[in-house]
Known about the structure:
51% of the residues lie in helices and 21% in strands. The chain is of the alpha+beta class. The protein has a 4-stranded antiparallel sheet. Strands 5-8-7 form a 3-stranded antiparallel sheet, with no helix packed on it. Strands 1-2 form a two-stranded antiparallel sheet.
Amino acid sequence: DVRFSNESYGVVVKIYLSEKLRADGRIKIAVSYALPPQNYLVKDGWQNYVLKINLIRPDEWVIYKVALIVTLPEGASLIQVNEPITRAQGIRVESVSPFQERVFVEYHSVVRFEDVSINVSYQYMVFWAGLRPTLLAAAIVGSAIILFLLAKSSAHVGIPSPTPVSVEILRKFIEVCEEKNRIMSEMESLEEQSARGKISRRQYRLMRKNLEGQLSSVQKSFLDLKAKMEAAGRTYANMIKRLEEAEAEIEVMKRSISDVEVRYRRGEISAETRRSLLEDYRRRIDRAESVRDEILLRLKEEIL
């Protein structure tokens, strides 16, 4: 159940879960919303703009990770990214296309008293909106001429083309990936409960078997959808490759963390070595999770 209310400082969204969340449970909630440009975008000169965003300020709790992705308008060029307290981790810029850039920013362990805000300055020529259709028309004409010449020179040679991916396949692929992540998270939580003696061995075996059955079913769906996505072209194939590499990295690092704990209990490593290794492995997990979340977010953007 979701309820909205208008307050003096903005819109309050209250989300009521259908089931009570356990003390050690976790849940992911995605909220899509639009920001009024007049409140966040400032024009600086005739072609420069500054996007000013003040991020979340939790009252009594900590946000362990905040990921912000700013996609500039097509034709815009980034000038700089400023943040008052300089504590963002992993600020990077990449090209979405020859005419478009995207900025990625991450914050970790955000608390109430921090001013977590960011300013993105960019340049955008006002005549780009009119230039874009002209470029597109020129590209279409050029492509038509090239295709005509190719058709004449290779009339008997078939040119394979990628199969387009439907919105439904994209949606199912995202749902399967998120379901797989949910099951893996529940299995991890189950292991922790068993290690702490919160559930019996019989309960553990039954719940583990149930989750493994769910994971097997989801994995079959994933492989089927993966084949369809990869058939759509190199872009999707590369995204899936990065996604699988990130998931593999997460699993390897989690096993490494378990190994470190075992070695520490046996007295094979010191407390300082244990702490250093755990910090390194957890950082690598955070990076891999960021890559995974970023890829899923890109796929979601294609559906919208």
